[in-house]
């Protein structure tokens, strides 16, 4: 249910209370709904009872009590509670976004794992080449995440022959070396350079690991402020739809990477997730004197879900996802 739909639902509840003779007021044209403030509850709150108290000739709490049963019985409403002087707080039934975030936080690093390849043995016969070995090693993990089993061997017929690296990637260190070999498509020549080590936005591996570390830091900061993650409406958070779409697409990406023997698809997907979550993170914590609200808890849950996908994806590529960077 969108805020506009909830506003209409609130007005319908007011109209029902008027028709039942419990209120004597003119039903207003609109009802303002917004994420609950400090001390609030649920997903949204409305001050409609305070607005109608004077024309109804009743205290706001009495007006709220008259409206509550009609609102509680509306489709899409999971609960109603009255707080403060007469604010009506509403908890919605889970939205698709809520269910997605809850699923990721519940399944953790196994989110996206499936039985798509159950019973299938994937034979990966590779040449004696460092890139082929690294790609095959990542594929064993990715195929395993989809219920299959990867077996790596050498000799003819070769079934996996990515373009070899132009030089030894070992000086980059294990994580950067693996990324340098896995991020390009198998038919592209990998670039072996110190660019994979720089901590700048131009480095995709840095962006992925930095985004993951930021989500973990936000969890620690939120704990210091006394609140934890709880999926729900994100308030006026911008740019969340693109991130949610990428998180929802993660299981498909893993299946495609496994069936097409293409770990690069997972690597590029992780870059997209990182680029989508980074603009969201500044709005997770309260600012200044602002108190933690339901929207902050929901944004933290979304950030933690994105961090979980990044950590899980890096793990399948055989790359570490540090909590501090």
Question: Any descriptors?
Answer:
alpha+beta; 10 helices; 325 residues; 4-stranded antiparallel beta sheet; two-stranded parallel sheet; 9% strand; elongated
Structure description:
This protein has 325 residues and is α+β, with helices and mostly antiparallel strands. It contains 10 helices and 6 strands, in the order αββααββαβαβααααα. Strands 1-2-4-3 form a 4-stranded antiparallel sheet. Helix 5 links the parallel strand 5 and strand 6. The longest helix has 23 residues. The chain is elongated.
What is the count of β-strands? 6
What sort of overall outline do the alpha carbons produce when their principal axes are compared?
Answer: elongated
Major sheet details: 4 strands, antiparallel
Number of helices: 10
- How confident overall, as mean pLDDT? 94
- What's the helical proportion of residues? 40-55%
Helix-strand string? HEEHHEEHEHEHHHHH
Rg, nearest Å? 26 Å
Give the topology, please:
Layout: H1 3-19, E1 33-34, E2 44-46, H2 48-56, H3 60-72, E3 77-83, E4 87-92, H4 96-107, E5 121-126, H5 130-145, E6 149-154, H6 174-182, H7 204-225, H8 240-259, H9 263-277, H10 294-316
Parallel strand pairs: 5-6
Antiparallel strand pairs: 1-2, 2-4, 3-4
Helix pairs in contact: 1-3, 2-3, 4-10, 5-8, 7-9, 7-10, 8-9, 8-10, 9-10
């Amino acid at each position: 249910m969108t805020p506009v739909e909830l506003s209409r639902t609130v007005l319908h509840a007011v109209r029902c209370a008027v028709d039942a003779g419990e209120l004597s007021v003119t039903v207003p044209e609109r009802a303002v709904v917004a994420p609950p403030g400090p001390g609030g509850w649920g997903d949204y709150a409305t001050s409609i009872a305070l607005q109608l108290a004077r024309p109804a000739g009743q205290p706001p709490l009495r007006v709220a009590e008259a409206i509550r049963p009609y609102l509680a019985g509306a489709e899409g409403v999971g609960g109603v509670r009255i707080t403060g002087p007469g604010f009506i707080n509403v908890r919605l039934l889970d939205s698709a976004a809520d269910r997605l975030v809850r699923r990721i936080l519940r399944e953790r690093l196994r989110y996206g794992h499936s039985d798509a390849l159950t019973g299938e043995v994937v034979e990966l016969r590779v040449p004696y080449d460092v890139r082929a070995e690294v790609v095959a090693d990542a594929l064993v993990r990715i195929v395993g995440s989809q219920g299959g089993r990867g077996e790596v061997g050498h000799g003819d017929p070769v079934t996996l022959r990515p373009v070899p690296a132009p030089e030894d990637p070992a000086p980059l260190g294990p994580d950067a070396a693996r990324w340098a070999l896995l991020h390009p498509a198998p038919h592209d020549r990998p670039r072996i350079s110190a660019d994979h080590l720089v901590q700048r936005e131009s480095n995709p591996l840095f962006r992925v690991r930095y985004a993951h570390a930021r989500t973990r830091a936000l969890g620690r900061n939120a704990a210091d402020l006394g609140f934890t993650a709880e999926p729900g409406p994100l308030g006026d958070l911008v740019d969340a739809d693109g991130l949610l779409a990428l998180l929802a697409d993660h299981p498909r990406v893993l299946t495609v990477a496994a069936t097409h023997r293409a770990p690069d698809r997972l690597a590029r997907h992780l870059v997209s997730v990182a680029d989508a979550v980074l603009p969201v993170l500044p709005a997770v914590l309260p600012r200044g004197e602002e108190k933690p609200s339901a929207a902050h808890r929901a944004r933290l849950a979304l950030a933690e879900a994105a961090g979980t996908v990044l950590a899980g994806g890096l793990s399948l590529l055989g790359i570490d996802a540090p909590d501090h960077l």
